[in-house]
Write a structure and sequence with these properties.
Blueprint (H helix, E strand, L loop, with lengths): L5 E2 L13 H9 L4 E2 H4 L10 H6 L26 E5 L2 E7 L27 H9 L5 E6 L7 H12 L6 E6 L1 H4 L6 H10 L4 E6 L9 H12 L3 E7 L8 H13 L3 E6 L14 H14 L8 E6 L2 E8 L3 E9 L8 E5 L16
Parallel strand pairs: 4-5, 5-6, 6-7, 7-8, 8-9, 9-10
Antiparallel strand pairs: 1-2, 3-4, 10-11, 11-12, 12-13
Helix pairs in contact: 5-7, 9-10
Length: 358
């Protein structure tokens, strides 16, 4: 296959016949990026193509709704470039570029020129991790860590490998969908080397079955042979996968190639995301029906909201009540607790509910 070419301007994408001023205005507000490999998966004649809806701006993105930092992540950043929200887990925001930009991204603020949360020099973050032995898991994220060079990946893993308390490093990446050829022999050797003493998890982001191509499956297989454990996360997105059969098919096909469905997310109320969001109770219905139809391993995924207070699982509803479980709360002594609220079909987030005193 030809070398993958990246496009940072919507006007330069050859497959788009017409780009009007309204889309240019959206692009100025929320960055655009795609590449030739991912473009080849899209039916450009179909305005409802799910992959097109992942990367091509919608005019409705200018609607006033939500916040740029919907989960208040900056609240949990003790040093620049590091987030420490949950006791055993630290996030290194080590890169501010992705293989393409999902229009519904909850961290789109990182790609804006004025944002400085990402720190490519991770030394301060590594020092913080070393000084906090409760941290056993480190998630490399941003941006997409697989957009970094192999040299930088090796350097970061080498630093983390020296910290006894760190047992797992996770890569939060969509590159296996956006450009699976990035998983080259050198990267696989780095993963294999790290796995001799610790463990690499690759948290992939497949949103639709059309992303699970031959090339993508080859990358999955190679990573598994290098010793990586691979889990999938996806939000439910309007116009992409807001249908139980789509989620069911995605989960089953992922399990067939050895990827375990991990989380299904409610779309965060991030600024610009209203046109992609599905109300909580509708999304839960989609998730529940998909799980009902899925094979056993496909049923592992949980429907989660990543709230500023922690991760809440939506576990069920009655005619009048919706039930949440405190899945991974910042103050972990509360984990496992149940919260009950009045049904609200118009709710998009936890804050839209009125809770019943327990």
């Amino acid at each position: 296959m030809e070398k993958v070419k990246y496009y940072n301007s919507i006007a330069k994408v050859p497959d788009l016949e017409r780009v009007d001023d309204e889309l240019i205005k959206i692009e100025e507000q929320y960055k655009f990026r795609t590449n030739s490999y991912y473009n080849s998966l899209i039916d450009w004649s179909n305005p409802n193509d799910p992959l097109l809806n992942i990367i091509v701006p919608r005019k409705e993105e200018d609607m006033e709704w939500g916040e740029l930092d919907a989960s208040n992540e900056t609240m949990y950043q003790p040093v620049k470039g590091l987030e420490h929200k949950y006791s055993p887990t630290a996030l290194l925001l080590c890169n501010d570029v992705c293989g393409a930009y999902c229009r519904f991204c909850f961290r789109k603020r990182l790609f804006q020129n004025e944002n400085d949360e990402v720190e490519r020099d991770v030394s301060a973050g590594v020092k913080y991790i070393e000084e906090h032995p409760e941290i056993s898991n480190v998630l490399l994220t941003g941006g997409d860590p697989l957009m970094m060079s192999n040299r930088r990946v090796r350097e970061i893993l080498s630093d983390l490998k020296q910290i006894d308390s760190v047992k797992i490093v996770r890569f939060g990446t969509k590159m296996l969908a956006f450009n699976p050829m990035r998983v080259d022999e050198e990267f696989l050797a780095i993963v294999k080397d790290f796995n001799e003493e610790k463990q690499v998890f690759v948290m992939v982001h497949y949103n639709h079955i059309n992303e699970l191509t031959k090339e993508s499956i080859q990358a999955i297989t190679a990573l598994k042979e290098a010793g990586a454990t691979i889990l999938n996360q996806t939000p439910i997105i309007k116009g992409v996968n807001d249908d139980p059969e789509m989620i069911r098919e995605l989960h089953d096909q992922l399990t067939y190639v050895g990827v375990v469905p991990y989380y299904v997310f409610a779309c965060r109320p991030t600024k610009g995301n209203y046109t992609y969001a599905v109300p909580v109770e509708q999304a839960h219905d989609i998730y529940t029906e998909a799980i009902r139809r899925s094979s056993g391993i496909g049923k592992n995924a949980r429907f989660i909201m990543s709230h500023h207070s922690g991760k809440c699982e939506v576990v069920g509803k009655t005619d009048t009540t919706i039930i949440f479980k405190k899945h991974n709360i910042v103050h972990h002594e509360n984990n496992g607790g149940i919260m009950m609220a009045e049904r609200n079909p118009s709710a998009y987030w936890l804050d839209d509910y009125t809770f019943t005193p327990q």
